[in-house]
Amino acid sequence: MFIVRTAWSVGHRRTDVFRMRVGLVFPEHRDPDEHLLRIPLLSLFYRILSLLLQQHRRITIMDAIIESGRKIWEGEIDFEGQRLVEMFCSVLLSTAGVLAFMVGFATQDITYTLYILLGGAALTFVVCVPPWPIYNKDPVKWLPAKKSSRVTGIDITVDGKKVQ
């Protein structure tokens, strides 16, 4: 796990210290990360990363990677988009199956059938899995939340006793 730490001492900021914890112990080095900076690619990665990350808060590199991946692949689509994706998926897979069967039957070669099915599945994946903007044209307009001082009409019973 990568951790970016900003070290503070006697009122002034020292340089950022990068640590990589992989669960390995390197007793021959005073600093377990010293050997990593000898690898040119990792050293370059650390330098680029230090320019990109903010210096005043603690951020893990994995959190940054997960956050960017979440924004890309989170899949926020509305209900109409879900209906459209389901239709695309059904049509594309059915068309690929029928086409693969006809080509395989005409050529009497199962490899053509399998390649066409694989291509159809790949095309369906590309069309249906990413959250394309076309799938979010009609976002749901939610009602505003209501604050209530007292919840009424709910009876919760735990071990024969009513809980409020």
TrEMBL record:
Pfam families with a match to the protein in the record: SPC12
UniProt KW keywords: Endoplasmic reticulum, Membrane, Transmembrane, Transmembrane helix
Similarity-based family: Belongs to the SPCS1 family.
Principal subcellular localization: endoplasmic reticulum
UniProt keyword annotation of rRNA-binding present: no
GO cellular component, one term: signal peptidase complex
Record's bilayer topology term: Multi-pass membrane protein
Function: Component of the signal peptidase complex (SPC) which catalyzes the cleavage of N-terminal signal sequences from nascent proteins as they are translocated into the lumen of the endoplasmic reticulum. Dispensable for SPC enzymatic activity.
Keyword Endoplasmic reticulum appears in the UniProt entry: yes
An individual GO BP term: signal peptide processing
Species annotation: Aureobasidium pullulans (Black yeast)
InterPro entries named in the record: Spc1/SPCS1 (IPR009542)
Record protein name field: Signal peptidase complex subunit 1
Transmembrane spans: 84-106, 112-132
Subcellular location: Endoplasmic reticulum membrane
